[in-house]
């Protein structure tokens, strides 16, 4: 990929608030037309990074390029970005039309051009009947549409979303999520999207950057993030319920720990130096085999069922194997009850192995 | 779960149902309204006496019954207080003081509020290096007793040639209103969502653009609060007025004092009462007109900061 296809580049970005290092040596390249999600728990620096890209925060060190131009010291309005905020941030005293055209008026765009662009944005977002209303008279979903429209009319290269759906109720959130995806397919703009909701991240993103403590823990496609987490943090963060993490050692091509011996024949090692030190194996709840499939598994064990959570589509079982807690999924119709003893199998080809000391993938 | 065959279906169950009846004459209500009534009378009685007295002629006042309503209503004292009462050699009543007070009030009001609101806006949204220090110094200014600054200000006004003029007093009022007004505005602007400010910046609005087109239209309540504070403060001011002006430029309060405290001749209580009521009229009107906004603004500013 050549350098010109990069839409946003962040180089060695540092941001300190006094002694607190919010962002450290951060590097990220975002491709033209890409939908990148910054994901992490609160305080990980994801919103801060977005604000830096927007120009709303002064960086301590490093550079930011948008479309090949160094915008590190540029005003937010001169960066070719549009931003959508969690609280919508609509100007309450202006009508929807006023909100949409505010940025254009500031940029001294001609009157008929403003009308044209407002009309187009309103059409795309289906808010035409609301143009004369004030934000106070709109529902949450309508407000967020207007907020997106405000970025849309300005014909920007990059859209920045700061948890845009967090204030909406669950149903509306799902609807707007789909709509955002459609919008991205239609407009083909670069979009950077901050969220703490992993479902949003998985469904929307071309690539996800998982952040922690001002650093990027892993940057990759949703598929890579989910199936090949590069470290224990990412493995534990993504997936609900969380991955089962079992500590042990590698012994003669087998994982050994907690009275388990799991053959690693099918496992694709990323490093050749898989060593004698302590390791941890991560197995997702859906990769624990139950029922008839147990017989096909190379490694089996018998567990005691502790808690059964019926979710409708499937059943979530919390069980113990000696001192080890194991979570796994079963069919929604399985008749398992607390106290049952159950045979389960392990599919190690889809597991993740980590160095327990460096916490990185083996 | 109740199904149609259950024994309670289709039958009204005994016992109370619906909202609980309330007694109007409960002990709690008598106590509450009784207290409110007493306190209201306590506060309104002086006002009543003033109004009644100002509408009586002097012979009637000499009868000594201050609570009695006027037998014969006369507006003579009001006219006299406004246009004829003497202070020193001037005998044109309070009208001149009123004119002076208005001439002091309007520019002080506009100047202090416009400067303080921009101050507060800058301190809330455009944190610059040392802005916290600047703010702290400003707030400390609010706690220094006026008295210690009286004489230095005399010197400053003399040096810049404003001593004794209305503009000198305007300057003093503007400066002394600055700490509390800046605090008020800063706290209000801090309580507005920060994302709104960010959105306006992304939309290309600069310092003044954000202020005039986004912040200002959202801040009417706090402007009303500031206005009320300043109108009452400046209108009721006596100390600065008596020190920094001269007889021709005395504000209304100083003139009122001179009328009421005049030692020559007989005490014209009715004129004094009318003069006092006239002087208090401006803040009173402001309160009545903007009372609702005042309460809302105080609450809005109090949320954060």
UniProtKB/TrEMBL annotation, chain A:
<protein>
    <submittedName>
        <fullName>Carbohydrate ABC transporter ATP-binding protein (CUT1 family)</fullName>
    </submittedName>
</protein>
<dbReference type="Pfam" id="PF00005">
    <property type="entry name" value="ABC_tran"/>
</dbReference>
<dbReference type="InterPro" id="IPR008995">
    <property type="entry name" value="Mo/tungstate-bd_C_term_dom"/>
</dbReference>
<dbReference type="InterPro" id="IPR047641">
    <property type="entry name" value="ABC_transpr_MalK/UgpC-like"/>
</dbReference>
<keyword id="KW-0813">Transport</keyword>
<dbReference type="InterPro" id="IPR017871">
    <property type="entry name" value="ABC_transporter-like_CS"/>
</dbReference>
<dbReference type="GO" id="GO:0008643">
    <property type="term" value="P:carbohydrate transport"/>
</dbReference>
<feature type="domain" description="ABC transporter">
    <location>
        <begin position="8"/>
        <end position="238"/>
    </location>
</feature>
<keyword id="KW-0547">Nucleotide-binding</keyword>
<dbReference type="InterPro" id="IPR040582">
    <property type="entry name" value="OB_MalK-like"/>
</dbReference>
<dbReference type="GO" id="GO:0055052">
    <property type="term" value="C:ATP-binding cassette (ABC) transporter complex, substrate-binding subunit-containing"/>
</dbReference>
<comment type="similarity">
    <text>Belongs to the ABC transporter superfamily.</text>
</comment>
<dbReference type="Pfam" id="PF17912">
    <property type="entry name" value="OB_MalK"/>
</dbReference>
<dbReference type="GO" id="GO:0140359">
    <property type="term" value="F:ABC-type transporter activity"/>
</dbReference>
<dbReference type="InterPro" id="IPR003593">
    <property type="entry name" value="AAA+_ATPase"/>
</dbReference>
<dbReference type="InterPro" id="IPR003439">
    <property type="entry name" value="ABC_transporter-like_ATP-bd"/>
</dbReference>
<dbReference type="InterPro" id="IPR015855">
    <property type="entry name" value="ABC_transpr_MalK-like"/>
</dbReference>
<dbReference type="GO" id="GO:0005524">
    <property type="term" value="F:ATP binding"/>
</dbReference>
<keyword id="KW-0067">ATP-binding</keyword>
<dbReference type="GO" id="GO:0016887">
    <property type="term" value="F:ATP hydrolysis activity"/>
</dbReference>
<dbReference type="InterPro" id="IPR012340">
    <property type="entry name" value="NA-bd_OB-fold"/>
</dbReference>
<dbReference type="InterPro" id="IPR027417">
    <property type="entry name" value="P-loop_NTPase"/>
</dbReference>
Automatic annotation (TrEMBL), chain B:
<dbReference type="GO" id="GO:0055085">
    <property type="term" value="P:transmembrane transport"/>
</dbReference>
<dbReference type="Pfam" id="PF00528">
    <property type="entry name" value="BPD_transp_1"/>
</dbReference>
<dbReference type="InterPro" id="IPR035906">
    <property type="entry name" value="MetI-like_sf"/>
</dbReference>
<feature type="transmembrane region" description="Helical">
    <location>
        <begin position="133"/>
        <end position="154"/>
    </location>
</feature>
<feature type="domain" description="ABC transmembrane type-1">
    <location>
        <begin position="98"/>
        <end position="290"/>
    </location>
</feature>
<feature type="transmembrane region" description="Helical">
    <location>
        <begin position="104"/>
        <end position="124"/>
    </location>
</feature>
<feature type="transmembrane region" description="Helical">
    <location>
        <begin position="210"/>
        <end position="235"/>
    </location>
</feature>
<keyword id="KW-0472">Membrane</keyword>
<keyword id="KW-0813">Transport</keyword>
<feature type="region of interest" description="Disordered">
    <location>
        <begin position="1"/>
        <end position="22"/>
    </location>
</feature>
<feature type="transmembrane region" description="Helical">
    <location>
        <begin position="30"/>
        <end position="51"/>
    </location>
</feature>
<feature type="transmembrane region" description="Helical">
    <location>
        <begin position="166"/>
        <end position="189"/>
    </location>
</feature>
<dbReference type="InterPro" id="IPR000515">
    <property type="entry name" value="MetI-like"/>
</dbReference>
<keyword id="KW-0812">Transmembrane</keyword>
<protein>
    <submittedName>
        <fullName>Carbohydrate ABC transporter membrane protein 2 (CUT1 family)</fullName>
    </submittedName>
</protein>
<keyword id="KW-1133">Transmembrane helix</keyword>
<feature type="transmembrane region" description="Helical">
    <location>
        <begin position="271"/>
        <end position="289"/>
    </location>
</feature>
<dbReference type="GO" id="GO:0005886">
    <property type="term" value="C:plasma membrane"/>
</dbReference>
<comment type="similarity">
    <text>Belongs to the binding-protein-dependent transport system permease family.</text>
</comment>
């Amino acid at each position: 990929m050549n350098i010109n296809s990069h839409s946003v580049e962040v180089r060695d970005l540092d941001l300190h608030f006094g002694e607190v290092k919010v962002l450290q040596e951060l590097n990220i390249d975002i491709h033209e037309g890409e939908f990148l999600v910054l994901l992490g728990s609160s305080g990980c620096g994801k919103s801060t990074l977005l604000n830096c890209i927007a120009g709303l925060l002064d960086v301590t060190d490093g550079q930011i390029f948008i479309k090949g131009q160094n915008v590190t010291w540029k005003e937010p309005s001169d960066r070719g970005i549009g931003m959508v905020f969690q609280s919508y941030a609509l100007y309450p005293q202006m009508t929807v039309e006023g909100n949409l055209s505010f940025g254009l008026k500031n940029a001294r765009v001609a009157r008929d051009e403003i009308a044209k662009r407002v009309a187009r944005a309103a059409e795309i977002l289906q808010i035409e009947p609301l143009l004369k209303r004030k934000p106070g008279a709109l529902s949450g979903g309508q407000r967020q549409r207007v907020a997106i429209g405000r970025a849309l009319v300005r014909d920007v290269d990059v859209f920045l979303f700061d948890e845009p759906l967090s204030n909406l109720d669950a149903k509306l959130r799902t609807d707007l999520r789909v709509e955002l995806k459609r919008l991205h397919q239609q407009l083909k703009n670069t979009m950077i999207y901050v969220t703490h909701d992993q479902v949003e991240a998985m469904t929307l993103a071309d690539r996800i950057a998982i952040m922690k403590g001002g650093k990027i823990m892993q940057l990759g496609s949703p598929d890579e993030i989910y199936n090949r987490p590069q470290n224990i943090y990412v493995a534990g963060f993504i997936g609900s319920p969380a991955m089962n993490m079992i500590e042990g050692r590698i012994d003669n091509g087998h994982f050994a720990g907690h009275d388990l011996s799991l053959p690693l024949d099918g496992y694709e090692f990323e490093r050749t130096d898989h060593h004698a030190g302590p390791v941890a194996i991560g197995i997702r709840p859906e990769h624990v085999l139950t029922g008839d499939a147990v017989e096909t598994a190379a490694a089996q064990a018998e567990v005691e069922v502790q808690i059964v959570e019926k979710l409708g589509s499937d059943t979530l079982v919390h069980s113990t194997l000696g001192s080890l807690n194991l979570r796994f999924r079963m069919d929604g119709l399985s008749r398992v009850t607390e106290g049952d003893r159950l045979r389960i199998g392990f599919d190690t080809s889809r597991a993740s192995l980590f160095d327990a000391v460096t916490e990185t993938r083996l | 779960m109740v199904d149609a065959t259950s024994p309670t279906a289709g039958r009204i169950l005994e016992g109370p149902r619906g909202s609980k009846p309330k007694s109007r004459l409960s002990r709690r209500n008598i106590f509450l309204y009784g207290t409110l009534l007493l306190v209201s009378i306590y506060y309104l009685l002086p006002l009543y006496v003033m109004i009644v007295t100002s509408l009586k002629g002097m012979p009637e006042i000499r009868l000594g019954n201050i609570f009695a309503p006027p037998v014969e209503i006369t507006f003579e004292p009001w006219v006299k207080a406004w246009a004829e009462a003497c202070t020193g050699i001037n005998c044109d009543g309070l009208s001149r003081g009123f004119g002076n007070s208005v001439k002091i009030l309007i520019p002080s009001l506009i100047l202090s509020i416009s400067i303080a609101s921009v101050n507060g806006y800058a301190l809330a949204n455009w944190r610059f290096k040392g802005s916290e220090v600047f703010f702290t110094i400003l707030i400390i200014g609010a706690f220094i007793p006026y008295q210690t600054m009286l004489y230095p200000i005399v010197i400053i006004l003399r040096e810049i040639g404003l001593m004794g003029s209305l503009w000198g007093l305007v300057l003093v009022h503007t400066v002394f209103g600055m700490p509390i007004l800046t605090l008020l505005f800063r706290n209000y602007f801090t309580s507005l969502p920060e994302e709104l400010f960010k959105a306006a910046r992304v939309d290309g609005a600069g310092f003044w653009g954000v202020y005039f087109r986004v912040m200002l239209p959202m801040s009417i309540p706090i402007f009303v609060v500031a206005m009320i504070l300043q109108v009452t403060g400046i209108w009721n001011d006596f100390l600065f007025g008596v020190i920094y002006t001269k007889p021709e430029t005395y504000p209304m309060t100083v003139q009122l004092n001179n009328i009421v405290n005049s030692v020559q001749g007989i005490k014209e209580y009715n004129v004094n009462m009318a003069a006092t009521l006239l002087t208090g009229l401006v803040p009173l009107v402001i309160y009545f007109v903007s009372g609702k906004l005042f309460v809302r603004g105080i609450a809005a500013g109090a949320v954060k900061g």
